[in-house]
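We were asked to recover a plausible sequence for a given structure. The inputs and outputs are reproduced exactly as logged, with field labels preserved.

PROBLEM: sequence recovery
POSITIONS: 644
GIVEN STRUCTURE:
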């Protein structure tokens, strides 16, 4: 077996950038990581004093709510994510799937099987909830920005929803062109945004410095004691200030830990605090400003420029979530939880810039329906919180396991840290669960549906692999038969794609049965997905000679990489195994799946309705030809019927 170098690209990040490089990465991170949480001042404090709660903006209430906001940002984002969770990276990548890979390295969980299944289910459900976040965030951000029209030009208020639909429709329509050019403008736009909201906050705070006392957590405690159940419900709106906090961890692979921390601590966190304090000071001076405290911070001449800047910031926030959904989907495909979909690379230099049409239009339709159905941020706030708080809760549970297994924390330390996080997460989650009937059901239903589809696809694949393995012939027995039967060999190279790196693929047996010939060079190629974001060049491709003109080729890709079989064959050709493009034929199997009752001995048992769903998903998945970048004019497909 020989390790072979792979001539492929990837996105590589500095582990410890300094100077100009750190400044560039930090600026870029502003546009990708902090768009969501950066636009929360548009609606968060306004929703806390929504008429729905009946909470008057009195001095005590303003101080109480502001104290809760300050400490939510501090505990959830600064302490939990920036200080602790960012440490749990898998070769620089973050997110719930990265946490899962840390818990189960090399697919060999140290935990009992039952516990392992629960952890996998949690990670997948957290991933499914992120799709709900991807649908709701663009709607919430754009509506929040456009609601400034009610302050700037009230007569145009009826155009808010049509404008939001138009902006979002254009945003989704241009996704196919890639984010390379637009992405370069994201950082400067968000830099201008954070500077603007900080200046607005300072201008208001200097008129009443007493508002700074709200940093005292006792004001939040007093608010909770004074209002009891109502204070608990208000937490459902307070959580809006930390929406996007999960992005700090999920997007770590694009920039690294250091730039993300630097952007938060030196700019984003201070700017958000100053703006929230400024809104609070405004409410002390003019309680009627609770209608929209963000836009009422601005002097009249600056309202329209602020509205334009807010709209651009909302588009940036939307773009970040849409791009994140593409990245999550590719991870799911590589790990076997999502059917093969078309993945288009929109940049020749950046591996991470991709476009997935099916995901784009799925989110687009969902987002536009949400805008039309909910119409404003007040109605949408109920749906927004559940996806965010559910994902944060799951991240805390997975981080606890990582801290014990990988960081080797003592039990008391892990329990203490995660218990603090869980108290906050559970409080926010519970406060949002009571709003299920008012719109919170949207991300929950979506998350459950996507979770079931992912689990059905994964288990169906395992069952199908088991069925195919039942008829697999040992490679040694097959080669003996080839040698004895003197099968006619023709010139050229044949590539048989197989999901197993053992035995003889069914498509090869099918080919030999019908065509009764073999090529002089036969490659059994299998593509594997490692539980790491990227595989190094040294471990990417391995070739084993089987004799009689047969070789087994195993290509290992990380879950953030896209397989390319012709590139693999270029490497094999450099070893001296002739694989010239015009002399190579690819043989693929196309299975027609027929759901049947479970058989005795099946390791995986699926109900009939789930088998039907799996068969539909398999029929509509992208072909292996497209997914593995195989030249379609060099492919031979052989059909077969499989009962499973």
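RECOVERED SEQUENCE:
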């Amino acid at each position: 077996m020989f390790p072979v170098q792979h001539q492929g690209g990837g996105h590589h990040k500095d582990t410890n950038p300094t100077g100009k490089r750190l400044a560039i990465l930090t600026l870029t991170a502003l546009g990708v990581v902090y768009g969501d949480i950066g636009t929360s001042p548009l609606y968060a404090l306004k929703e806390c004093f929504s008429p729905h709660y009946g909470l008057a903006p009195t001095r005590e209430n303003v101080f109480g709510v502001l104290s809760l906001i300050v400490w939510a940002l501090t505990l959830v984002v600064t302490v939990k994510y920036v200080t602790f969770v960012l440490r749990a990276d898998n070769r620089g990548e973050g997110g719930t799937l990265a946490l899962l890979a840390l818990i189960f390295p090399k697919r060999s969980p140290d935990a009992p099987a039952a516990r392992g299944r629960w952890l996998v289910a949690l990670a997948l459900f957290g991933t499914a909830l992120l799709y709900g976040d991807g649908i709701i965030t663009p709607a919430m951000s754009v509506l929040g920005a456009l609601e400034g029209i009610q302050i700037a030009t009230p007569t145009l208020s009826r155009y808010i929803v049509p404008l939001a639909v138009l902006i979002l429709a254009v945003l989704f329509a241009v996704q196919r062109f890639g984010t390379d050019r637009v992405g370069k403008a994201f950082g400067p736009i968000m830099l201008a945004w954070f500077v603007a909201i900080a200046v607005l906050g300072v201008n208001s705070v200097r008129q009443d410095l007493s508002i700074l006392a709200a940093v005292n957590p006792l004001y939040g405690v007093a608010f909770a004691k004074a209002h009891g159940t109502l204070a608990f419900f208000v937490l459902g709106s307070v959580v809006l200030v930390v929406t996007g906090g999960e992005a700090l961890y999920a997007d770590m692979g694009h920039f690294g830990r250091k730039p993300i921390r630097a952007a938060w601590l030196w700019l984003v966190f201070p700017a958000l605090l100053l703006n929230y304090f400024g809104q609070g000071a405004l409410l002390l001076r003019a309680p009627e400003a609770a209608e929209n405290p963000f836009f009422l911070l601005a002097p009249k001449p600056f309202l329209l420029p602020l509205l334009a800047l807010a709209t651009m910031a909302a588009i940036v926030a939307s773009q970040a979530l849409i791009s994140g959904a593409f990245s999550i989907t590719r991870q799911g495909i590589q790990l076997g939880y999502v059917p093969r979909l078309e993945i288009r690379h929109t940049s020749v230099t950046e591996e991470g810039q991709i476009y997935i049409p099916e995901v784009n239009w799925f989110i687009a339709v969902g987002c536009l329906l949400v805008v039309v159905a909910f119409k404003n941020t007040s109605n949408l706030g109920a749906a927004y919180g559940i996806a965010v708080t559910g994902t944060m809760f799951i991240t805390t549970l997975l981080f606890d396991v990582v801290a014990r297994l990988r960081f080797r924390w003592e039990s008391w330390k892990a329990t203490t840290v995660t218990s603090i996080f869980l108290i906050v997460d559970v409080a926010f989650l519970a406060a949002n669960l009571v709003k299920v009937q008012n719109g919170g059901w949207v991300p929950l239903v979506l998350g459950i549906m996507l979770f079931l589809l992912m689990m059905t696809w994964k288990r169906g694949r395992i069952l199908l692999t088991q069925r195919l393995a039942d008829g697999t012939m040992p490679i040694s027995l097959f080669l003996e038969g080839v040698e004895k039967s003197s099968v006619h060999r023709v010139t050229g190279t044949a590539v048989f794609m197989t999901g197993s790196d053992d035995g003889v693929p069914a498509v090869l047996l099918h080919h030999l049965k019908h065509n009764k010939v073999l090529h002089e060079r036969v490659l059994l190629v299998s593509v594997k997905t490692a539980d790491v974001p990227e595989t190094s060049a040294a471990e990417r491709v391995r070739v084993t000679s089987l004799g009689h003109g047969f070789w087994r080729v195993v290509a290992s890709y990380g879950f953030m990489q896209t397989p390319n079989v012709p590139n693999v064959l270029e490497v094999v050709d450099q070893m001296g195994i002739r694989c010239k493009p015009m002399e190579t034929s690819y043989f693929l199997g196309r299975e027609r799946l027929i759901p049947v009752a479970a058989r005795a001995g099946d390791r995986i048992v699926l109900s009939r309705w789930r088998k039907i769903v799996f068969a539909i998903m398999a029929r509509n998945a992208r072909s292996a030809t497209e997914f593995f970048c195989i030249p379609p004019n060099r492919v031979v497909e052989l059909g077969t019927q499989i009962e499973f």
